[in-house]
Amino acid sequence: MEVAIPHSLGREEVRRRLSSSSSSIADAIPGGMAQVTTQWLDENSLSLAINAMGQALNGRIDIGDTQVVFTMDLPLALGFIKPIVESTIQQAGQKLLAAPAAG
To answer: In the list 19, 20, 26, 95, which could disulfide-bond 34, CB 3.0-4.6 Å?
Structure first.
């Protein structure tokens, strides 16, 4: 599953925003019981390991010049929540990218 969110911030600003908010990614996951581990793979790719609802999910955030692409591997057993996950990623991503820059 991929969700692309357009931006006009530049890669450096997106990286800064992701770095400053990576500890709160779990807050965006419905149910409030998720554990999220993040790791920068390179300057434009962030891996996500999510444990939620008894499932281990892997994802990735890739920063492009004009969009951020969230890729999430959903097991077949969780296919029914795909629309919820897509909507949550879209809303949380837009909120993150719309946040005013810190001074």
So the answer is: 26
- Condensed to tens digits (0 to 9), the pLDDT of residues 53-79 reads 777 889 999 999 999 999 988 888 878
Domains of the chain, start order: 2-97 (3.30.310.80)
Distance CA 10, CA 52 (A): 31
pTM of the predicted model over 0.90:
no
Backbone torsion region of residue 98, taken as left when φ is above 0, otherwise alpha when ψ lies between -120 and 50, otherwise beta: alpha
Report which of 21, 8, 18 is spatially closest to residue 43, judged by C-alpha positions. 18
